# Entry
Amino acid sequence: MRNLQARYTRDRLILIVVIAGTILAALPLTLVLGYALVNGFSSLNWDFFTKGPKPPGELGGGMAPAIVGTLVITGVGLLMATPFGIGAGILLAEYPDNKLNPTLRLLSDTLNGMPAILKGLLAYVLVVKAQGSFSGFSGSLAMAFIMIPIIAKTTESVLKLVPWNIREAGLALGLPRWRVILSLVLPAARGGVVTGLLLATARAAGEAAPLIFTAFGNSLLTFDLSQPMDALPLRLYAYAISPYEDWHRQAWAAAVVLLGLIVLTSLLARWVTRGR
# Structure
C-alpha cells in the first residue's frame, strides 16, 4: 500500500513538472502574441488594406502592395515546391532501396537545417545575378527552397503510415507500382500531404531575410514577377527599424495581419485532417 501511494505521489509530481514546463514554454509566445495584437489592432483600418505606403514622414497609407506581394510570392513558391517536395517524399517512402535516397535525404536534411537567409542568397546567385535585377520570381524561388524539405519530410512520414495491404491489393490487381502510388497510396494520405503543404506555406510566409536578397520590395502594387515585389515581412522589417512612430504602428499592424494569415493556414490544415 505504501509503495502504491509513493507511485501516485511521483506521478503527480511529474504531472506538475510537465504542466509547469508547458506554461513556461507557452508564456513567452503568449506575451509576444498579446503585445502584437494590442499594438497592431489599433492601426488596422480600411486604408491599411487598400492603399500603398506613404513617403517617409507622411502619416497614413497602407500595405496593399505588401499583402498582395506576400500572397503572390508565397503562392508561386508553393507551386514550384509542390512537385519536387511530394516527388522526393514518394521516392524516400515508396522506394527505400533506391540509390538516390541517401543523397536525397542528405540534401533534404541540409536544406531543412540551412538558415533561411542562405536560401535567399542561393536564389540571389541563381536568379538575381543572372537577370541583373531583383524580382518577385527570385523571392518565390527562395520560398520554394524553404518549403521543399518540409513538404518532402511530411509526405514521406504520412506515406509510411499508409497500410501496406493497400499497396498489395493494388499490385494483386495487376496495377504497376506507379499507378498504385498515384491511385491508392497518395489518396489515402492526402490529408497529411495537404497538411504538409499548408504548414510549409505558413513557415515560408513569415520569412523576411530571403526576400531582402531577392524580391527586395516595391512601394507600388505589381503582379509582374520579373520586377521587384513587396511583401509583408519585408515591409514590417523596414518600418520597424525606421525612426517614424506612424511606421512603427503600421509595422505592428503588419505583424497582426501576418500572424492572422499563418493562424488561418494552420487552422485550415487542422480542418483538412480532422477525423483522419
